[in-house]
Every structure is written in structure tokens, then in C-alpha cells.
Amino acid sequence: MNEPTLRVEVPMRWGDMDAYGHINNVNLVRMMEEARIAGFGVPGGTGKPGIEPMVDLFSAVPENTQILVVEHRVRYVKPLDYRNVPAHVDLWISAIKAASFDICYEFHDPVDGGVCVRAATTLAFFSVETQRLLRLSVENKEAMARYGADPIFR
Q1: In Å, how far from its chain's centre is CA 100?
Q2: How far is CA 91 from CA 21, 47, 129, in A?
Q3: Three-class SS of residue 145?
Q4: Architecture, CATH, for domain 6-145
Q5: In whole angstroms, how far apart are CA 21 and each of 32, 49, 106, 133?
Q6: Across all residues in the chain, what is the average pLDDT?
């Protein structure tokens, strides 16, 4: 993995744990969303103001634009055991294309620091008015490129 990355902390909830004592795969995808929002912000027009993200890439999307999930890819390296402390998640952007980009994640055990999960989410901007994907602007691509690194999956 290349720099630059953002590191965020995502709480593990008691209810996220499965019968084996580790974070359930469905709840891991929810944690990916929490990490993405903590790192890059709440999509514009959703929610109310709160804690500022580390890097605000998403709150300034044009009106009537949604940021939609196109695909999730998840590779479980080792179990992410439930702990009463937040998981450490490294985030970066890769595969910036004409109308989509990937957010990459590495989930680390908060005690031993080992990598437990590697994942990526492909996102796209979507016009509510035209019901079509939007091309990323030059400004979008430049802002994302500042946090760009190699993809998790090739």
C-alpha cells in the first residue's frame, strides 16, 4: 500500500459479534460505511451537521446528486475479533475513472495491529433528475487523487 491514507476508528458494537466471537460479515460492510463517512464525509443533502470528517470530499456534491454504492469487495484475512475498543481502519482512494472510484479499506485489530480485512467499495455519482450516472469533474478527480494509492484488488 502507498501513502497517503487516512486512519479512522470505527466502534465495534456488541451486536456486531457473531457466535464465533468475531465481527459478522454483514456488520463488517456496515463498518465500511462508517469508516467511509468518518474519513470522507456525509454525502451532501443527507443528515444534519455534526463532527467534521477528516477530509470533506462528499458534502459538496451538487444538489440532486447522490453517491451510490456500485459494488463491495471484501477479503477476510483473519477474524476481526470483537473488542470493546474501536477497530483501526486505513482508507484511501483508487481506480478513479470517468464515472466511478473506489474507496479502499484495511481493517486492523486494535490490540495487535494485524490486518484482518481488506476491502473496496466502488462508488458513483448519480443524477436524481436524469436517473443516470454522472461523470466525475476534473475538480472531483483532483481532490480524490490527493488521497489516491494502489488498489486493494487488481
Answers
A1: 14
A2: 25, 22, 31
A3: helix
A4: Roll (3.10)
A5: 19, 35, 20, 40
A6: 91
- What whole-number distance in Å separates Cα of residue 15 and Cα of residue 18? 8
Residue at grid coordinates 443524477 = 127
Cell 472531483 belongs to 140
CB-CB contact of 46 with 53 (8 Å) = no
57: left (phi over 0), alpha (psi -120 to 50) or beta: alpha
For residues 141 and 40, what is the distance between their CA atoms, to the nearest angstrom?
A: 14
Residues sharing a CB contact under 8 Å with residue 91, sequence separation 6 or more, in sequence order: 5, 6, 7, 8, 35, 36, 39, 40, 103, 104, 105, 147
Q: How do strand 101-108 and strand 87-94 relate by DSSP bridges?
A: antiparallel
Contact 113, 89 (CB under 8 A): no
Q: Is 88 helix (H, G, I), strand (E, B) or coil?
A: strand
pLDDT tens digits for range 28-56: 999 999 999 999 988 876 766 677 788 88
Beta bridge partners of 23: 17
Full-model pTM: 0.92
Task: Name the residue ranges covered by the structural domains of the chain.
Answer: 6-145
